[in-house]
Amino acid sequence: MSVYTSIEPDQLEQFLKRYDLGNAVDFKPIAAGITNSNYALQTDQGFFVLTLYEHHSDDELDYMLRLQCHLAGRGVLCSEPVKDRRGDFFSSLNNRPVAISRRLDGVTLSSPDLHQCALIGAELARFHLAGRDFGLVRANPRGLDWIIAVRDMLHDYLDSSDLSAIETTLLAAQKLDLDALPRGAIHADLFHDNALFCGENLEGILDFDYACTDAFAFDIAVLLNDWCIDEDNQLIDTRVGAVIDAYHKQRHLEDIEIAALPLLLRVAAMRFWLSRLYDKAFPLSGELTFVKSPEQYRHMHRLRAAGVKLPAQLGRRVELEWD
Prior knowledge:
With about 325 residues, the chain is an alpha+beta fold.
């Protein structure tokens, strides 16, 4: 949500003629995140977010935006794209694909409590259930194939212990048949800064850039690694329990998914470690750019590789080594 591509007032005025959204009242960049160019847009008809996508293909955007519309239509709390006068979800501006979505109220959390963890766990389950009849498919853009490719690109930024740790996790993941896990549309990036709250109420889920078709349990692992950790990146049992219990009440977790969670927590930590290192090593040029440090997830990956104990309230304590 940094700004890589600027928009001039006359360009905005001309672009908004494609929509039934009225005239612009306020327009300013959103200076957070690392993926796209995002602007807060206020018109005389409401509040919106205008996004210029810096690296997505038309097929990827079609998947992402149609998924958001599909989920919102089934009551999932999420940002909803706005169609233009032609019925299109996105078009072009400054040689970039661009879309407008309705702006959600609320703020992001710095430290979610148990109630908020439960709310996001339940909403993620509703997301997974609502996406079961979504007809489009998108392979995970940052799955194992991407990790292998980026590991090679980052070879000069990784020491021998890093490379060994990555290789060990990749071998473990390849031994587990990830395709056998229940799967469908997932968010794949549901960090606490991609959800908005008003007080104790969840207002909605943001940022579908990495939404794809993959294992539901991987989506849960990504969430747990961010929402349910202490200052040393260790999992907090009560928060993990709150997320899993709330999720399970909406969508039954199968034994195979629970058994796979320790490894998926490790894979998710590796994915975000390498993503952040890649963004740091090969930054996009732009204004107000913000790159997250890879060190947190490097440390987390080491912790998850050392072994994960899931809380007893999952029905049993699972400690699995897939090496």
